[in-house]
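Q: What structure does this chain adopt?
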Amino acid sequence: MGAEVVGPDPRQNGAGRAGAPLLRVSDLFVNYGQVEALHGISLDVYPGEVVAIIGSNGAGKSTTMRAISGMLVPRAGRVVFDGRDVTGLPSHEIVRLGLVHVPEGRQIFANQSVRDNLMLGAFQQPRSRAAETAERLRRELDRFPVLRERQDQRAGTLSGGEQQMLAISRGLMARPKLLLLDEPSMGLAPLLVRQVAETVRQLNSEGVTILLVEQLAMMALSVAHRAYVIQNGVVRIEGPSAGLARNPEVIRAYLGGAAQQVEAQPPAG
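A:
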């Protein structure tokens, strides 16, 4: 199966299951027209965690993320974020509350500059926080030096990996309490997939809570504290990442050894 997956130790960065979840999704049903895509999804994310959602193409992973972030309106069920029911709220209101979605496919503004894309991530911040926004911009340009080098360049001219860096940094400009990362490794070469994994680890070490959707199950389990396996619009298996990595069903279906593009790295201790 390749390298053993060892999930991060929640004690290293304050993650744990005590207290109320930051995000609670309960019995979520979502339709595309007459077709039911989600059949009662439930999941929790606690402060300080990285939680992964894995599954095959068409399983309902991205649909779950879109329903959480307000891009889709659920037919039934509840999404409670930071103690508030946000089910069916418009996306811009959900972003204002601190739940920020970095969508599948990056969705950058190709004709705008790198810098303008980053500043658009902070468009809901009040003018009174201009100094804080400037500091966040500096921090994101420091996080990915290539963005600093190309900040005046049109975003559409960046490589796929650079566009993914930009999409993540744009999300961070919105000061998220919870960051939803949807397929951040999509279309990237193995070296860049590893860089994405390291970025997730680094963000979590800085205190960012993350819900991660990934088709590359090995990568997802290597960075997550816990994971949910979605199949045909329902949660089939859930638990600590290290345990799922030893689950024969998960190994057979999702951890195809050489098919995975990133080796698991034990968390820094």
